Amino acid sequence: METLVEGTVEAALRDGPGDAVRLYVAACAERMAPLFVGLRAGVSGREADVDLYVESVSGLWHADRPLADVAERVRLLERFPELQPHEEGITGVADTYAFFGALGLRYALLANGSGSADDAVSCGHAALTAMGMLDQNAVGASFLADEQRLQSLSLSGDAAGLWDASATAGRERFRAVVGRLPR
To answer: Is the separation of the CB atoms in 50 and 12 below 8 Å?
Structure first.
């Protein structure tokens, strides 16, 4: 499968240590978190899903070691409605971006547990795909280019600056998606 992840980023993930992979996916998940959390918070029956998402993203930032319960988190996440097959597909704005948020977290958790560059690249690809879609639907947007820049920055090893940049980007994405929701 060809991915949108830049070749230099992919190579760095493959050649780097496991903590570089874990930091990269923590940052990707942080940027996608507002899309899932913001679009699912307040939805009846989704409180535990939102809590699992928030706790998982927070735990991913301990990039020096894998999460102890990563397999259980993946198992629970894979039960989310966003990750279940749909006969008619996903067509709504909120459902589409919540799906990408859940998918990105799934790959982030898998990469965190295994240190797998393939799972990390899949996490980055999910984020890039979502941002490419957002660019197509928001006039003058450059979310895809920003995601590519932040993915490269994720390899810097500066977790503090990376968290701040990722949290800011996530909020901007959420605002753009909310602006596309039917009124």
So the answer is: no
Q: How is domain 7-178 classified at the CATH fold level?
A: YP_001051499.1 fold like (1.20.1590)
**Domain residue extents for the chain:** 7-178
pLDDT tens per residue, range 89-148: 888 999 999 999 999 999 999 999 999 999 999 999 999 999 999 999 888 899 999 999
Distance, CA of 71 to CA of 12 (rounded, Å)? 25
CA gap 119, 140 in Å, rounded: 31
Residues of the chain by 3-state class (helix, strand, coil), percent to 5: 75, 0, 25
pLDDT tens-digit map of 40-89: 999 999 999 999 999 999 999 999 999 999 999 999 999 999 999 888 88
CA 138, CA 2: separation in Å to the nearest integer? Answer: 25
- Global confidence as pTM: 0.95
**Which residues make Cβ contacts (< 8 Å) with residue 83, sequence separation at least 6?**
77, 99, 102, 103, 106
- Judged by phi (left if over 0) then psi (alpha if -120 to 50, else beta), residue 140 lies in left
